């Protein structure tokens, strides 16, 4: 009796947790960054992320409907035609009409899903008309960002606080810092409402640059240049990580993107640029040495001794 009550309490707790998760899943889905126990992918802060979310939701609902129909048909067949009620299995080899139906309908579903998904995929790689270009280079285990044409470049590593906690032996679940292992010393700063082109590569092994709120992920491959773009619609701080196993410290390559207004970005960029060297004042020209006046040739001629 005690055991059954214990199981009943555990089941009740599980149902409460599930209900709470379902109640808040829609709110979590609106956030830019993933949240603990999030039940759906977020909409992100770019048009690219929105397109990915829409394609995901179409596929999700199509699969949900198919799943409901299939399991409902299975349940009906199991209980309606069970042997205990004397059901006898029908004997037939095939049904042409049924075979046509279950071949044509999936093809139609795939075409309906693939057509808009293909258009979205093409748009995700259309980096024409970009207003600025940022080069991203992956290293073991950090990122380097170069604002091409602006003479601004810096590296971005996991922040010192996270590194100290990591090496202290603290239990990760007991760390109170909400951005543990997700904070960096130098975030990538980008302006909002600006189409930014990325050229992505690596200096050593394969990495992958991934910020979920931007709606895409791109491998950084040594010797190759991959191109993507983004246009962030909302100011904020968005976090990601390296998404390709790249060595022993792969889990310590966070990415932080800080989206700011265009005016704030211009000020930040101007402050990051190296100060122009002030030209030195040229030294005065050396004075021309004075020369003795020329003497007549007669004075220069040797005189005869004993004259």
Can you describe this structure?
This protein is an alpha+beta fold and 307 residues long. Among the domains are: 47-82 and 96-125, no CATH class; 132-272, Immunoglobulin-like (Sandwich). The protein is 37% helix and 19% strand. The strands form 2 sheets. The chain has a 5-stranded mixed beta sheet with strand order 3-2-1-5-8, with no helix packed on it. A 5-stranded mixed beta sheet has the order 4-10-9-6-7. Strand 6 (207-211) and strand 7 form a beta hairpin. The protein is elongated. Its cofactor is Cu cation. The chain crosses the membrane at residues 58-79, 100-118.
Features:
307 residues; alpha+beta; Immunoglobulin-like; five-stranded mixed beta sheet; 37% helix; disordered C terminus; cytochrome-c oxidase activity; Cyt_c_oxidase_su2_TM_dom; EC 7.1.1.9; translocase
In short:
By secondary structure, the chain is of the alpha+beta class. The chain has helices at 2-30, 47-80, 96-124, 160-167, 262-272, 297-300, and strands at 132-139, 142-147, 152-156, 188-191, 196-202, 207-211, 216-220, 226-230, 236-242, 254-260.
The count of helical stretches stands at 6
The end-to-end span amounts to 154 Å
| Tertiary shape | elongated
Give the proportion of residues in helices.
Answer: 25-40%
Membrane topology: Multi-pass membrane protein
Subcellular location: Cell membrane; Membrane
Domain Cytochrome oxidase subunit II transmembrane region profile: 33-128
Function: Subunits I and II form the functional core of the enzyme complex. Electrons originating in cytochrome c are transferred via heme a and Cu(A) to the binuclear center formed by heme a3 and Cu(B).
């Amino acid at each position: 009796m005690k055991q059954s009550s214990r199981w009943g309490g555990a089941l009740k707790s599980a149902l409460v947790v599930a209900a709470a998760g379902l109640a808040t899943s829609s709110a979590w889905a609106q956030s830019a960054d993933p949240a603990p126990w999030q039940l759906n992918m977020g909409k992100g802060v770019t048009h690219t992320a929105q397109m990915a979310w829409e394609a995901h939701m179409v596929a999700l609902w199509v699969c949900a409907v198919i799943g409901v129909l299939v399991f409902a048909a299975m349940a009906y067949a199991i209980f309606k035609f069970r042997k205990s009620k004397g059901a006898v299995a029908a004997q037939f080899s095939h049904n042409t009409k049924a075979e046509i139906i279950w071949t044509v309908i999936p093809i139609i579903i795939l075409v309906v899903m693939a057509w808009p998904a293909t258009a979205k995929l093409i748009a995700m790689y259309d980096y024409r008309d970009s207003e600025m270009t940022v080069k991203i280079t992956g290293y073991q285990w950090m990122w380097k960002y170069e604002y091409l044409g602006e003479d601004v470049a810096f590296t971005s590593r996991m922040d010192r606080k996270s590194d100290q906690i990591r090496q202290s032996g603290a239990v990760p679940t007991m760390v109170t810092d909400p951005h543990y292992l997700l904070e960096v010393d130098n975030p990538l700063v980008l302006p909002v409402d600006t189409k930014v082109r990325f050229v992505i590569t690596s200096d050593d092994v394969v990495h992958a640059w991934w910020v979920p709120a931007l709606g895409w992920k791109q491998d950084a491959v040594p010797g190759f240049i991959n191109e993507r773009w983004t246009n962030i619609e909302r100011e904020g701080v968005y976090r990601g990580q390296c998404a390709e196993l790249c060595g022993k410290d792969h889990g310590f390559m966070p990415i932080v993107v800080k989206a700011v207004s265009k005016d704030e970005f211009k000020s930040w960029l101007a402050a990051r640029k190296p100060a122009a060297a002030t030209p030195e004042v040229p030294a005065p020209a050396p004075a021309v040495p004075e020369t003795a006046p020329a003497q007549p040739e007669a004075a220069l001629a040797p005189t005869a001794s004993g004259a």
